[in-house]
Amino acid sequence: MGKRYAMVIDLRKCVGCHACQVACKSENNVPLGVFRNWVDELETGKFPTVSRQRLPRLCNHCKNPSCLNVCPVKATYQLEDGTVLIDYDRCIGCKYCIAACPYDARFINPVRKTAEKCTYCHERLEAGLQPACVNTCISGARVFGDLNDPTSEVFKLVATQPVNVSKPETNNRPQTYYIGADDKALRPNLLNIVGGEK
Amino acid sequence: MTTVHLFNTNHEIYWGLLIAVYFYYTGMSAGSFILTSLGTVFGIEKYKKVSKVGVLMAIVLLLFAPLHLLFDLEQPSRALNLFLHVNPSSAMSWGVYLLVLYPICLLIYAWYMFRQDFVNNMNGSGFKAGLYRFLLFGKTDMSAAAKENDKKKSKFFGTLGVPLALAVHGYTGFILGNVQARAIWHTPLMPIIFLMSAMVSGTGLFIIVLLLVEKFKFGKVSDDIKSLIPDIANLMKWFIVIDGALMIIYFIVLWYSSEAGYAAAYYLLHGDAWSFLGLENGLGMLLPLLILLSKKARQSIPAVVVASVLTIIGVLAMRINLVIGGQELPLTGSKMLEYVVSGHDLTIVIGLAVATTVVLSFLYAVLPMNRPGAQVKLTSQATKGVAQ
Ligand code: SF4
Ligand code: SF4
């Protein structure tokens, strides 16, 4: 079996320092105002039973990526190892992928004028390095590796820890596994936002 | 349970006014074409006299529609990639071919429809005669066999045009309907809703254009057109009924669907109420329906015009509510997304609307618009209204 890259994010360890967000920006030269990788901070519950959560987010490199399905020119493609990439020379900037991704993972790079998102730092992987966010994480909350390799750390974590993914009901099969994430935090609390909560 | 985001990353609404207006144009093109093909294709005699007005409108709207998309691309110079790389799983990729085939089919259909009139009016030294001679490409045969061939060919291409018109607008419904990330779009009804509202707005715009063409080209709205308007208005009434029924079905199922679906429905009723209930469904659907329900109103041209204008506005609101409203609900984070139309987009929308009107008026002015039942000779007097 070939490789299948995935990321595990252990929220019990994340302290919300945003170092990964910064490292990603500088590694990938991401322009101001847009993010390939970002950390949301939220509070769930009502006083006094509140809990504070941090939620690092990035492209999930889905097994069935809706961004790839909708791209009219096949500029978005998937490698054998599961990494979803964009051919920046082919992308016409129609933004269909941005509308179709359930995770807000994509944006238009205002300088390059194409769609863009996390690449798992593809160049670093090719050079045998870890993605910049994983490399920089001060608490070891981010673990990256090959889910098909039983000796890898990600495999062990997914096999032994209670993990969940964001919006499992989509047919995307996202490959970012969170440990200790409240499902309420992994999706917008829409009823709260629009009203209509009974 | 409440969730408060203390730190939110902003996301943008990327599909804005240009996309909504693109859907609107293709819809009106398909709608007006299907309506006016009733004559040539389905042999309903009385609609034959308006086929020419309808087909020109359908062609011009469809030529300008994709320009909205082109201006929306971040890399318009790479638009050719759409033809070079096909992705069968992308509705947008299907559309590229439809957007080429449909106008070509319509152009051929129109040519056969206009050919004999070109021949009849090609002698002379004026601009129009020269244009007709050019457009004939040498095919000036007026034998009975050639005339029969015109009829057959226009019927063939008109018939081919109907499924193409359905597809060219139906596919836009798939563009939204296939997106499972957004409950508000993700319904199998989407292509049919788009088609029905296209019939409504296409008919509405067609009535107005038809009356304008009659007025300016022939000086007055002649009796045979006057007697056709109630018929078209009656059809429009039924289109609105079906469109309204679909909207109600869509809304009920949305209300009882997933949490995201319910939230979207709730948002349409509350947050977006003035535009969804007021503009789209009240002013744009219910009011014209009430007008058209009365037989007397259907026979009164001003009443039909008012109803038509209302449907045109209503369907535009519907496209905007769906395309842009559908993206206002966040997929992550805890804030509604806000859309502010950029000056760039607004300029393009207005510019293209003006260009469409100018080109369409020009075509109506220079092409022979005579029709069965009112053979008006193309004299300078009859056309002076629009010629300048
Ligand atoms: S998270 Fe979004 S952008 Fe990333 S692979 Fe999945 S659908 Fe595509
Ligand atoms: S913006 Fe680029 S990558 Fe995204 S769907 Fe369009 S062409 Fe494909």
Features:
heterodimer; A: 198 residues; alpha+beta; Alpha-Beta Plaits; two-stranded antiparallel sheet; 7 helices; B: mainly alpha; 15 helices; disordered C terminus
Describe the model.
The complex is a heterodimer of chains A (198) and B (388). With 198 residues, chain A is α+β, with helices and mostly antiparallel strands. Chain A has one domain: Alpha-Beta Plaits, CATH 3.30.70. Helices cover 22% and strands 22% of the residues of chain A. Chain A is built from seven helices and ten strands. Chain A has a four-stranded mixed sheet. Chain A has a two-stranded antiparallel ribbon with strand order 2-3. Chain A is globular. Chain B is mainly alpha-helical and 388 residues long. Chain B has two domains: 194 residues, no CATH class; 121 residues, no CATH class. The relative contact order of chain B is 0.15. Classes of the chains: A alpha+beta (198), B mainly alpha (388). The interface between A and B is large, with 54 and 59 residues. Strand 2 of chain A pairs antiparallel with strand 1 of chain B. Bound molecules: iron/sulfur cluster (2 copies).
